[in-house]
Amino acid sequence: MIRRYKFAAFFLALAVSVTAQDIPQQLHGKWLIKRIVPTTTISCWSFKEAQRIVGTEIDYSANRLRWKDRVASDPLVEVSELSAVEFQQEYSGGGANDSQVNFGQLGIRSHSVTRIKLTHPDIKPIWGSYEIPGEEVLVKDKNTIIFSVCNVYFEARRESVSRASTK
After folding, report:
1. Domain residues for 95?
2. How many helices (H) and strands (E) in the chain?
3. Into how many domains does the chain fold?
4. Is residue 2 in a domain?
5. Could you tell me which residue, 96 or 43, shows the higher pLDDT?
6. Is residue 70 part of a domain?
7. What are residue 153's DSSP bridge partners?
8. Which residue, 18, 30, 61, 147, has most beta carbons within 10 Å?
9. Quick one: pLDDT at residue 167?
10. Taking 50 as the threshold, does the pLDDT of residue 146 lie above it?
11. CA angle at residue 154 from 103 to 146, to 5 degrees?
12. Could you tell me the pTM of the whole model?
């Protein structure tokens, strides 16, 4: 009987954390992908493929993520806090020759960050990857996000209103 309640509580918690909610206001607007962040990860992309993302924009609104011609509308949104230890355990491999990534490599100086995940149906692949830049981000600070595509980490900065309006 207790087992059944634990099972029901687990699914209730899951339903609460991944709900049809708006993309958080803190992401709204245009973000310019500034650079590749050097990490010790194993990627499915070459440097040349990864470099093609640098200089492009991610655009978020309440119910949409856009990168180039890829649009994810009405995604499921999950917002959570992730500690440095949890991040390293979740995003690094267990062996000496596996990918290793941590907050220090990403330039994150806090003990935890906000992680925002946007889940959507598959979209046309980008060089063999079904990920869209910006569909899962770590909020480094109010004007900087970190994300990965194909296990390559990128840093994007919020575009100022004046720059965004001059395009």
Report:
1. 20-165
2. 5, 9
3. 1
4. no
5. 43
6. yes
7. 37, 148
8. 147
9. 47
10. yes
11. 50
12. 0.81
